[in-house]
Amino acid sequence: MAVELVLKQLGRVPTHFFDLQNQWKNKTNGSFGDFDGKTIAGVTFHLRFNLSRNDQFPLDDLFAAIEAELRAGRFVIVSLAVAAGWHMHVIYGQDSDGDFLAVTKNGYGQTEYIESIKRVVTAMKGTDILVYDPIE
User: Fold this and answer.
1) What is the structure's pLDDT at 108?
2) Residue 83 zone, left/alpha/beta (φ > 0; ψ -120 to 50; rest)
3) What is the predicted pLDDT for the residue at 46?
4) Residues near 14 by beta carbon (within 8 Å), at least 6 away in sequence
5) How many angstroms separate the CA atoms of 119 and 122, rounded?
6) The whole model's pTM is what?
7) Which of 58, 40, 125, 56 is nearest to 48 (CA)?
8) Cα–Cα nearest to 130, from 50, 21, 71, 55
9) Which of 9, 17, 49, 135 is deepest in the core (most CB within 10 A)?
10) What SS3 string covers 48-83?
11) Neighbouring C-alpha atoms within 13 Å toward the C-beta of 83
C-alpha cells in the first residue's frame, strides 16, 4: 500500500506497520478518494486531478504539480494502469531528463522501480494523484 510506504518513509509509522494493507485486502472498490482529507499518523492526504482520462486532461498541470511536490521534498502517490486494473506507485524523484521515478511493491512483495512515468501517464491520458500536507 503506497500510503503506508509514504508514512514509513516519513517516519510516522514503524516498518512493521501493515494496518492499512490488512484493511484494504477486503476492498473491491477502493480508490484515492478513500484517503482524501483523512489524517493518518499526523499526515493529511489529498486527492488531486480526479478527472476524466481523455485528450482534455491537463497533463502539463499534473506534471507541474508533481514537480512542485518533489521540489518541496514530498513524495507523490500516483495511480497507474496495469494489466489487472490499477496499481499505486510512489513518485520519489526525477531522472536527468526530468521524467519521474517511482517505486512500488508488486503482488509478490518485491520492490519494483518504475521509470518514464510521464510517458506512462501521457499514454493513459491522465491519472489522479494523492499528495499530503507539509509535515511540521
Assistant:
1) 75
2) alpha
3) 96
4) 8
5) 5
6) 0.89
7) 58
8) 50
9) 49
10) ECCCCCCCCCCHHHHHHHHHHHHHCCCCEEEEEEEC
11) 2
Q: Which residues contact 119 (CB under 8 A, 6 or more apart)?
A: 99
Identity of the amino acid at 58: P
pLDDT tens digits for 33-43?
788 999 999 99
Nearest to 84 by CA among 103, 101, 102, 106: 106
Q: Which residue has the cell 512483495?
A: 109
Q: What are the grid coordinates assigned to 52, written together?
A: 476524466
- The list of the chain residues with pLDDT below 50 reads none
CB 46 within 8 A of CB 128: no
Beta-sheet strands, E only, within 1-136: 39-40, 43-48, 76-82, 85-94, 100-105, 111-114, 129-132
